[in-house]
Design brief:
By secondary structure, the chain is an all-alpha fold. Helix content is 84%, strand content 0%. It is globular and about 60 Å long.
Amino acid sequence: MSGSKSLYWKLSFYFFFFFVCWSSSYSLFSIWLGQEMKLTGSQTGLIFSVNAIFALCAQPLYGFISDKIGLRRNILLFISLLLVFTGPFFVFVYGPLLQVNVWLGAIVGGAFLSVGFLAGVGAIETYVEKVSRKYGFEYGRSRMWGSLGWAAATFFAGQLFNLNPNINFWISSVSAVVLVGIILSIRIPVTEGELEKAASVSMKDIGNLFKLRPFWYFMLYVIGVSCVYGVYDQQFPIYYSSLFPSHELGNQVYGYLNSFQVFLEAGMMFMAPFIVNKLGAKRSLIFAGMLMALRIVGSGLVFEPIGISAVKLIHALELPIMLIAIFKYLAAHFDTRLSSILYLVGFQFASQVGQAVLSPIAGSLYDGIGFRHTYLVMGALVLVFTLISIFTLFDDKNRKPKIERKLEPQQST
């Protein structure tokens, strides 16, 4: 029991400092691109699209390696060491490259950000989820500390950005040093059975996933719902700060709002397992989709700071429910040997494919018809795909054996 508690706290603190690292350098990323790098909405959309393309290349690789090595800590150690260089990268490499050539900066930045954050977060989440299943603690209770880390960093990010944006990037590097120390202190015994189970994972299993109709239905939900919500969030800080008398005031208030939202999100992350267990995975995914549609449409209908702030806070309810429901849905309907592949390909990879396509389109719409009308289009799209998913996602009962048998390796007799 003490070993389980120790692991819970170490992994929870790892989540905390990873999200401090990520939030410090990425929560105001679009503002940094627009105000500091002087990029247009279309150019910013291009940056996010390139980030998505690199992330979707890294995610299947992370997923396969994660399932192949099981509970060994290699990937987390690699990510932690890479993120130590976040500060120098943004200050001395990424920013200057964007000033010289947007395409070159986008490619170099996309490679670093995807491996360290955009795909790396999925590898970390699936690792902790595997450990939580082995040691009997709720994944959501550990992931809650990640939300707290994001909130803590975001609370100061707006103020620090106004002083000097580079401060946030150096905070990321310091947080990553803590990550290295935490992951080096973790020891997880691996049984012979777990080694054999991990070794049985093959590239053929990934190919078999794409032969399954339920897997495509799940990715349809991800692309039409989760992905659009991700595209919506990309340039929202720019729109939000524009509602204030000055960009500096808008940046500062957005930092406070985002921090408060993520504190609420952390509380919901604690409650989400109970809600998802009560509603079931499918109903929880549909519920989260409806909330996302409401939030995005609301952002197009409300046009003053207080109203848009209230709409933004809906995020604190929808994201924890969706995240926990995704893990439970995948565990209920697919082979748990492939948990990392399922999450990183079925959710993260599909999201990045959608964002790679939609980010430039959204950027052009922002420049052409404005943020509010673009949000109405996005919200309608999310609503349509959520309604479709009512009929395509599998119910929670009596489904796993039918699907899992297609993925299980043949047993020798």
